[in-house]
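Dear support,

I submitted the protein below through the web form. The confirmation email said the job was done, but the results page showed an empty box. After a refresh the structure appeared. I'm attaching both so you can tell me whether what I see now is the final result or a partial one.
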Amino acid sequence: MTYYVEGDFEWDDDLDYINVSNYRGDIYGVPSAVTVSNRSVDVEYGTYFFFFNNYVDVSFSFTTTDALWMTNDFSVTLRVSQEGQLS
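What the results page shows now:
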């Protein structure tokens, strides 16, 4: 399985500005014996502790269930700061 999250980010360090649009996440290559549920794409804005540097997180999460009813939770998060730093 392969899964990802992405978005279109705009930032301006001089204006303390960060924004994301067109965010999305998906999964492909799911084995036929596995079902995917609880798909969710979330966006969260924040500020680094003790710094005046804003960031935005875009996260994609989902749950898989196999033929034996075993479940696993997966997630991936992309963080971009107002300086354009990716983590």
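Response: this is the final, complete result; the empty box was a page-load delay. Strands lie at 2-12, 17-28, 35-47, 54-65, 71-81.
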